[in-house]
Amino acid sequence: MINNMRPVGIFDSGLGGLCAVKEAVKILPGEDIVYFGDTGRVPYGSRSYDIIKKYARQDMNFLISKNVKMILISCGTVSSVAIDYLREMFQDMPIIGVVETACEKAVAISIAKERQNKKIGIIATEATISKGMYKKYIAGIDPGCEVYSKACPLFVPLVENGHINDGDMITKLTAEYYLNEFKDLNLSSLILGCTHYPMIKNIINDVINGKNGKTELIDVGLEAAYKLKHELTERNLLNDTGRKGRLDIYISDEGLNFKNISSGFLGFDTSSSVGKIDIEKY
After folding, report:
1. Which residue range is the domain that position 175 belongs to?
2. pLDDT tens per residue across span 190-230
3. Edge-to-edge strand order for the sheet containing 274-276?
4. How far, CA to CA in Å, does 161 sit from each of 44, 75, 165, 273?
5. Are 19 and 222 in contact (CB under 8 A)?
6. Measured distance CA(55)–CA(33) in Å, rounded
7. Are residues 174 and 252 in the same domain?
8. Nearest CA to 245 among 66, 72, 29, 26?
9. Dihedral sign for Cα atoms in the order 57, 63, 64, 68
10. Strand partners, 188
């Protein structure tokens, strides 16, 4: 198959990576996309580093078996803990993570003329926060930034169980519990460092900003999708045939809510697009 006609691979620990898929479908309408959500082993954020690396290696092997030309790791935990390991192991496969692009966006916001506020917040899984990659990357771009981090482990299971509607009281109370300490910091931006979190972005925004706040929320999936387009273009891998791309979704466990939640979030029926695989074979 001609290189630029091959699909793009995207993976995450579960539903969250659909945030990146949703944006990629919009900005890369001609690309075939193969998405894998490891719904049978979600969440990754509370696992040991060795287990996260093992799961990520299997996820990569599965996507490579689909003859993909580039892989976007839309999981903040894997991007923080295992991306260097994966790049070393799969040297012939271009790999994009979500950490770098989100940090670059946050620093750009912090130094904008109308802001001049170098306070950046990060919320993510426990493994991501403990690894500190967001904080390290921001310091590498602008050491003058003040970074405030918070692990929010309950957000992932809430999303996976469908608690994503703007008025969901369980998610709102959880967000208030986690984010209360951020309210008075006057952050220039808040990085949603796990791709599950943009699915509850409106709830997080209400808690952080209320009626008058000016903290900008950064969707790591959106920023990564733009990076994906840039890298495909730079490497002459962009599918520019003018055809409409295809989306194939694979999961490791067919939860009761997956098809309903994914269809509602993406805005089209995913029933015929979803297949179940045994990820342990990879």
Report:
1. 99-221
2. 999 998 999 999 999 999 998 777 899 999 989 999 999 99
3. 95-96, 70-73, 8-12, 33-37, 247-251, 274-276
4. 16, 18, 11, 20
5. yes
6. 20
7. no
8. 29
9. negative
10. none
**Statement to judge: residues 77 and 122 lie in one domain:** no
- Which element (helix H / strand E) includes 70? strand 70-73
Residues assigned a catalytic role: 75, 194
25-29, 87-91, 106-110, 254-258: the lowest-pLDDT one? 254-258
Structural domain total, the chain: 2
Q: How many CB atoms lie within 10 A of CB 87?
A: 13
Q: Is this prediction's pTM over 0.70?
A: yes
Angle at 228 between CA 83 and CA 15, to 5 degrees: 70
Q: How far apart are CA 80 and CA 88, in angstroms?
A: 15
Residues 92 and 226 in one domain: yes
Regarding whether 133 and 122 lie in a shared domain, the answer is yes
Pair (12, 74) in one structural domain: yes
Left, alpha or beta for 236 (phi > 0: left; psi -120 to 50: alpha)?
left
CATH of the domain at 121: 3.40.50.1860
What is the rounded CA–CA span in Å between residue 246 and residue 216? 32
Amino acid identity of 201? Answer: K
232 shares a domain with 180: no
CA distance 189 to 122: 9
- Distance (Å, whole) CA 116 – CA 129: 25
Tokens of 203: 């709830």
| Cα–Cα distance, 52 to 32 (Å, whole number) | 27
- Residue 113 pLDDT: 55
